[in-house]
Design a protein that fits this description.
Low-confidence stretches: 1-18, 139-143, 790-796, 933-943
Number of helices: 28
Bound molecules: adenosine-5'-diphosphate
Shape: rod-shaped
Distance between the termini: 94 Å
Number of strands: 33
Helix content: 40-55%
Structural class: alpha+beta
Strand content: 15-25%
Largest sheet: 9 strands, antiparallel
Length: 943
């Protein structure tokens, strides 16, 4: 962990950056490899596209030019076709004109010998006139032609060669003309006179005239008049054709059933006199046949006349040319709306007109146009066929490229990318593993920049600090937690001392978290350096060692307490030793001072002696208290007066209380119920409570008050120990009874006082309670069940035992001669006979020699001690065993219990309270006196 100055925030942890960098890298690689493959392909494809467009345009041009040239050929053919009738009729007109020209020698009219008058039965009518019918039989099936004239003409016919003769002569050149041109259907002459007509080829009149008869004609004149009403005649008359031009009729359906046709006519003049009209018919089928020669060309080709009528047509989508169609019908809608003149405007090549490619060529001087229209889709279809080979080549090239790309991507790029992806997955899996490893750690893992901004923190650390990872990344951590100033200074110093040679250091920090918790943390900080040795990142691994530290501190406290209690124990035994040593002299001082009080001759001496006695007595009680404190023995249960225990405790603490000016108030009623308990243990409890109160009161500036009050409550005794000290906080109050819990400085507190006290009171079947608040002092309440029955010895009883005569022979055994003498002196004053033995052996000898009423024996003696002597007594004087009083100055001795518990001897502790001794001796002697006489020297008698 580190603290530092402000710097730019770092966004995101290592996971994010690794993942995105890697993912981006792989995606970039895939993109680049695709680009690498496609980049050279793109210009290539563009070039191919350009080539294809170029090719298409070229081909389009070529195709249209080809078609135009084919159409040109057709136009030539059309011109040839049209030239035949034109030449034909012109030649015939010239022939007649020539025949009738002035100055031409002519013989007699041959007419009369050629035609004959007859009545032709046609369709129910009888047509009377001149015909060439008979020639058919004379000259073959068809004859030379068809001539028809009204009878009046022949009747009036001049004898000289005339118009009719010339026309008849025309039949031969007509025949020749038909022979040379396949396109001519009929050739005819209609006379202006309406008196005759000539027709080639010859047909039976029944066939030729049938139509007219069906139309209602009954005379030959009607038929001739009817014929002169045809377009071919009307267009040739001087009125309609003053310039005497060649002309064409509109298409019409042939009356004789040859189909649709057009007629080409020329007016015939002789010496400026209009004679009639020569006409010839061309069946439209010939135009179609001609157009069929253009079979390979796409689109529609039509032969159109000046009126815009379609005479013939070829084209897949075109309607059949059974009737003359208007040109508009075969053009796309937009083009059809154009004026006819625009449509028929001739052009060299194709021009694009309103969505259609149009080529219009005029058939020379004739009023016919060859119109070729190709719609764009048709042209495209035609072009495709032509472009197919080049297309195949281009497709081949593209296919090869595609195959190359495929092979490249399949065998090179894709495996490469797969490898990369596989590696990426592996890396991600690994990263996830490592991440899990870091995240599931209970150790804290944190990464910092040298400026102390957090780069990464694992979950354990986030939990520990109580912050979300997102809140923490990029933050300066010490803005959120507080490191102890001393630790922070050490941390700075340690970070500054990180070097590539010594990149790791160990630190213990005490940190206050954002929620106020104070934690001990242990960190290993490792510096990560760049190639130039500059510190880049600090990686810190740490753990919360608060508990461990706490435990260590507690252990340390316990160790210290143990040490203290060992010290106390050692002090205790030392004290016990000292007390023991003091006991005997003290016993002497107390004993003799008491005797002095009694024996003093004057009041002043008695007064002084009583001072000595009182002082010695006080010393004796202090020594006894010490011994009680230091005594280590199993708990005992004796009926006792708790007031005594309290006053002993106060005596022990008296000095300290006094020197600290503590005012002690003790309120223990005399009729307080007695309890069954271990005097020493209860003594320890009250000493603890009194000493604690005294120590707490030391902090009080004002009056210091300690109050101890006892009362009988229900079936128990309640003692309250109250001080007006500073009291306890809630935390201290809660923990006060915990073993080793102390708020006192080392060497003063051990933290075991209250826990041991509570244990003792609990063992007595009672309870130790505490009420305290800061500033309100503390009250400890001790509850102990009362003992059943009455107090054994009351003061009256005491006094009774001290009065009245008593007699008996006693043996006092004590290695301390002064003590033995003191006891002997004291008891002798009561009239008792007292022997003294200073060791066990002497005592035994005396017991054997005399019958004693009572044995007073010290426990600890050289050679043969008290217990040994007593066990020997069992054989020597068993009766005496019931009349033994034990005196001991050694409260720590373990054997005391064994001897006392076996025989139930009364025990008197040194320094001796002589009154108590006297009372005990008297009680024994009085009770012995009431027993049957069995004292004696059993061993002696037996032996
Ligand atoms: P020690 O006296 O060695 O500290 P104890 O178990 O006797 O151990 O006491 C535990 C703690 O209880 C003391 O350290 C003190 O903080 C508190 N305490 C005990 N008696 C009092 C009292 N009369 N007033 C205030 N605090 C007390």
């Amino acid at each position: 962990m580190n603290n530092g100055t402000d710097g730019p925030p770092v966004q995101g942890g290592p996971r994010q950056s690794t993942e995105t960098t890697f993912g981006r890298g792989v995606r970039g690689l895939a993109r680049r490899s695709a680009l690498l493959i496609l980049a050279p392909l793109l210009p290539l494809l563009l070039f191919i596209g350009f080539l294809a467009a170029q090719l298409y345009a070229d081909q389009r041009r070529t195709v249209l030019a080809d078609i135009a040239s084919q159409t040109g050929d057709q136009r030539a053919a059309l011109e040839t076709l049209l030239d035949a009738p034109s030449t034909h009729v012109q030649r015939l007109a010239a022939f007649i004109a020539d025949r009738l020209a002035d100055g031409v020698p002519r013989g007699p009219s041959p007419m009369r010998s050629v035609i004959r008058r007859s009545v032709q039965p046609i369709g129910g009518a009888a047509i009377d006139g001149y015909f060439t019918e008979h020639l058919a039989t004379e000259q073959g099936a068809r004859g030379i032609g068809f001539v028809m004239a009204e009878p009046r003409l022949i009747d009036e016919l001049a004898p000289r060669y005339g118009e009719v003769d010339a026309v008849l002569d025309l039949l031969e050149p007509i025949r020749l003309g038909h022979l040379t041109s396949p396109y001519l259907q009929w050739t005819y002459f209609f006379s202006e006179s309406r008196q005759f007509a000539v027709l080639y080829p010859p047909f039976p009149s029944a066939e030729v005239l049938a139509n007219s008869v069906a139309g209602g004609a009954r005379r030959i004149e009607d038929i001739l008049a009817d014929w002169n009403d045809y377009d071919i005649f009307r267009l040739g008359t001087p009125d309609t054709n003053p310039e005497r031009k060649l002309y064409w009729t509109k298409p019409y359906l042939d009356a004789a059933g040859a189909g649709w046709m057009v007629s080409h006519g020329v007016p015939v003049y002789a010496a400026d006199r209009f004679l009639g009209v020569i006409g010839t018919d061309v069946v439209l089928r010939h135009f179609e046949t001609l157009l069929a020669g253009l079979s390979q060309a796409p689109g529609t080709v039509a032969v159109v006349n000046a009126e815009g009528q379609v005479l013939a047509m070829r084209g897949a989508d075109a309607p059949p040319s059974q009737a003359p169609w208007p040109i508009a019908a075969i053009l796309p809608e937009d083009a059809a709306r154009l004026p006819l003149a625009d449509i028929l405007a001739p052009s060299e090549g194709f021009r694009s007109v309103a969505g259609v490619n149009l080529l219009v060529q005029k058939a020379g001087a004739e009023p016919f146009w060859l119109v070729h229209s190709i719609r764009e889709p048709e042209l495209r279809t035609a072009l495709l066929a032509r472009l197919a080979p080049s297309g195949v080549v281009l497709l081949g090239v593209i296919a090869s490229l595609a195959v190359a790309v495929l092979v490249l991507s399949r065998y090179l790029v894709r495996p490469g990318l797969m490898l990369v992806r596989h590696s990426q997955r592996r890396i991600e899996e690994r990263e996830a593993e490592y991440r899990a490893l870091i995240e599931t750690q209970t150790e804290f893992v944190v990464r910092f920049q040298p400026d102390s901004r957090v780069l990464f923190a694992n979950q354990a650390f986030c939990r520990h600090v109580g912050m979300g990872r997102d809140e923490m990344i990029g933050e300066i951590l010490t803005d959120h937690i507080t490191i102890e100033p001393e630790d922070e200074a050490r941390l700075h110093e340690a970070v500054a001392n990180l070097t590539p040679e010594k990149p790791t250091m160990l630190l213990e920090l005490r940190v206050t978290q954002s929620d106020g918790r104070i934690c001990d943390e242990e960190w290993v900080e490792t510096g990560i350096f760049d190639a130039d040795g500059r510190l880049q990142v600090i990686q810190a691994v740490g753990r919360d060692v608060t508990e461990r530290k706490e435990t260590a501190r507690a252990l340390e406290r316990q160790r210290e307490a143990l040490h203290q209690s060992e010290k106390l124990a050692a002090l205790g035994s030392l004290l016990a030793g000292v007390a023991h040593e003091l006991n005997n002299p003290l016993s002497v001082v107390i004993g003799y001072s008491q005797m002095l009080v009694e024996l003093a001759p004057d009041a002043a001496t008695r007064e002084r002696a009583s001072h000595v006695h009182a002082a010695a007595d006080r010393c004796g009680r202090i020594v006894k208290s010490f011994l009680a404190m230091a005594r280590a023995k199993p708990p005992e249960r004796r009926r006792l007066f708790i007031g005594d225990v309290i006053s002993d405790a106060l005596t022990l603490a008296n000095y300290a209380l006094r020197t600290h000016s503590v005012k002690v108030t003790c309120d223990v009623p005399d009729d307080l119920a007695s309890v069954n308990g271990d005097r020493d243990q209860l003594h320890q409890v009250f000493v603890n409570l009194v000493v604690n109160a005294q120590q707490a009161l030391a902090a009080n500036l004002g009056p210091r008050q300690l109050t101890i009050s006892a009362r009988t409550e229900g079936a128990g005794v309640v003692v309250e120990v109250t001080d007006n000290g500073p009291g306890m906080t809630e935390e201290v109050r809660r923990r006060a009874f915990e073993p080793f819990f102390t708020t006192k400085p080392q060497g003063v507190g051990t933290g075991i006082g209250l826990s041991v006290s509570r244990g003792i009171i609990d063992a007595h079947g009672g309870a130790l309670e505490l009420t305290s608040a800061p500033g309100c002092g503390a009250t400890f309440t001790v509850r102990i069940p009362a003992a059943s029955g009455l107090h054994v010895v009351d003061d009256a009883e005491h006094d009774l035992l001290l009065e009245g005569p008593v007699e008996g022979q006693l043996l006092v055994v004590d290695d301390e001669e002064e003590i033995a003498e003191l006891i002997a002196d004291q008891l002798a004053r009561d009239g008792l006979i007292v022997d003294v033995a200073t060791n066990g052996q002497v005592a035994l000898d005396l017991v054997r020699a005399r019958a004693y009423d009572l044995l007073i024996v010290d426990l600890r003696m050289p050679d043969m001690d008290g217990p040994q002597l007593i066990s020997r007594l069992k054989r020597v004087a068993p009766a005496l065993l019931s009349r033994v009083i034990v005196v001991t100055g050694d409260a720590l001795a373990g054997e005391l219990d064994a001897v006392v518990s076996t025989h139930g001897f009364p025990v008197l502790e040194k320094p001796l309270d002589l009154d108590m001794l006297k009372r005990e001796v008297r009680r024994k002697l009085l009770s012995a006196a009431s027993e049957p006489e069995d004292r004696g020297i059993h061993e002696a008698h037996a032996s």
